[in-house]
Amino acid sequence: MIETKTGAEKKGALRPRLRNVLLVIQILLPFTLYIALEGGQTLIGTLIAGLIVLSMAGLVWVG
Amino acid sequence: MDLSLSIWNWLLALSPVLVVVVLMLVFRWGGSRAGGLGWFAAVLVAVLFFGAGFKLLAYAQVKAILLSLDVLFIIWSALLLFNIAREAGAIRMIGRALPGLTGDRVMQSLLIGWLMVSFLQGMGGFGVPVAVCAPLLVGLGYTPVQAVAMAAIGHGWAVSFGSLASSFQTLMALTGLPGEMLAPFAALLLGIACLPSGLLVALIGNGWKGLKRAVVPVLIIGSVMGVVQYLLATNGIWTLGATGAGIAGLVVGFGLVRLPAYRAKPSDAALDEPAEEDKGKSLWLSLLAYGLLVVLAFSVNLIPPVDSFLSQVAFTLEFPEVSTAFGWVTSAGTGRVINIFGHPGAILLYTCVISYLIYRRVGYIKKGALKSIIGRVMKSGVNSSLGILAMVGVASVMLHSGMTFLLAKGLSVSFSREAYPAVAPFIGALGAFITGSNNNSNVLFAVLQQNAAQLLNLSVPLIIGAQTAGGALGSVLAPAKVIVGCSTVGLAGEEGAVMRKLLGYGAVTVGTVALAAFIISLLI
């Protein structure tokens, strides 16, 4: 018998791993952002800020 | 639009907090998810209405991470200590021993949920009392929601003079007033708050009958703790205010349960045979982790050479001045300083390592148990950490864009001279609710409260005392702190249920301080 997982089940299974990844990202990104800002790298800083926003969106999605 | 005070601006400034509170209380979202959406709300409002630019938001987020790491160090270490102690059987043993000491459920709840948390607040910082004691209350048979609510409400009164009075030290530094001038009213108001805190612990755990039964012991123990804290604080020993009061409370509490009226018959559970894995174990040895924590915390905090030796390595970042388009300026300066080896989290970590080695040596923890301990720590720690990162992010964005200041300013100018003393504690509580910290609330609002008191010709020490008392009582209601408590009792993601319970009780404790400040202002 073939078992198919629903979207919610897949999300549930992925959730703990995603949370771990999100935690690491959310701690590291602001430090890289700080280094970029202090080094005057505005473009890189903007990209990192975009990633921080995406990680927050990920947090709302994962819950 | 500018940063001037209007009802529209004030509501906008409040909106990120409302988003978090409504999502948690009404829609029952977990702290991390609600915090995430609250962060988006804070950023949007800051950019669209408060003139926040890219650099301001970026540096605000970096500062938030630094603040969060300071807290997460404690949480992860506290979780590790708790799981090591649990693996060694300490939690089960306390759950059995306390009913053996007294079968009186009200006294059991007061001993752990009011006295022990207050004592731990004296030494530990952010969330440690709840993280340590909530699981003990669950072990005594209270539900996880009750346990977190009891431990949170039980220690609020001890926050300002707890953690070596760091919040009070902030108050002195910011207002420029000596501790001798500020301590009397702050200690008086917090001493008064001690009584409803104890009564509420009894009510949450044991219902109205429990509350009735708790009146006499709470009056006796609460008076002793309030007086001890007052005497220590007003005699220049404010750093030990809550610790001394907690010790005095525990001594009187253990004395009371020896009296026939409060000893009661040990419960049947206490008389049962111990669990198979706990047979042959000594209660005192299983409690070693917590005893060691007390010894290490005292050694580091009270022996200056030890403290200075451990404080040699610190981590921080320098931040430039940032301002909004409307002229709200955050000065340049150093971010949160994390004292790597002298940090409360490090002290907890030393305790973890030493106690784990001893437990292994005496056979209380079996070989291979470390993997399951770390697994449990990860499970609780990751979720609460994400919530705290998001919540502190919200607070930092609000602070840097001037929203938090506007909220307090709105409250301070909306009330008459007569009413203001009753409002001041709520301003302190609001700051602590948003930032999750009495200390941060004092950083935000102490000067504002001082200015308001001077303008209204009110006693400055009274209003500052009301500020820190409100901040102390409000800090235990903050989502960031509730998340910490929930993480240790398996309630991660269900923080809304605890907050719904806590907010009503918190209104009672803050309201009591407000009433007391109002009455005192009429008398002086």
Summarize the SSE layout with pairings:
The complex is a heterodimer of chains A (63) and B (524).
Chain A: H1 7-38, H2 42-62
Helix pairs in contact in A: 1-2
Chain B: H1 7-25, H2 31-49, H3 54-87, H4 90-101, H5 105-123, H6 128-139, H7 144-155, H8 166-175, H9 179-234, H10 241-256, H11 260-263, H12 268-271, H13 283-286, H14 288-302, H15 304-310, E1 314-315, E2 318-319, E3 322-323, E4 329-330, E5 333-334, E6 338-339, H16 344-362, H17 369-400, H18 403-413, H19 420-435, H20 438-455, H21 460-475, H22 479-487, H23 495-523
Antiparallel strand pairs in B: 1-6, 2-5, 3-4
Helix pairs in contact in B: 1-2, 1-18, 1-23, 2-17, 3-16, 3-17, 4-6, 5-6, 5-7, 5-9, 5-10, 6-7, 6-22, 7-9, 7-23, 8-20, 9-10, 9-21, 9-23, 14-15, 14-16, 17-22, 18-19, 18-20, 19-20, 19-21, 19-23, 20-21, 21-23
Biggest protein-protein contact in the assembly: A-B, 23 and 32 residues
Distance between the termini of chain B: 42 Å
Taken as a percent bin, the fraction of beta residues of chain B is: under 5%
> Count of helical segments of chain B?
23
* Biggest β-sheet strands, sense, barrel of chain B: 2 strands, antiparallel
Residue runs with pLDDT of under 50 for 5 or more positions of chain B: none
* Helix and strand element order of chain A: HH
Shape of chain B: globular
The count of β-strands of chain A is 0
The protein's oligomeric status is heterodimer
Q: Which strand order do you get reading across the main beta sheet of chain B?
A: 1-6
Q: How many extended strands of chain B?
A: 6
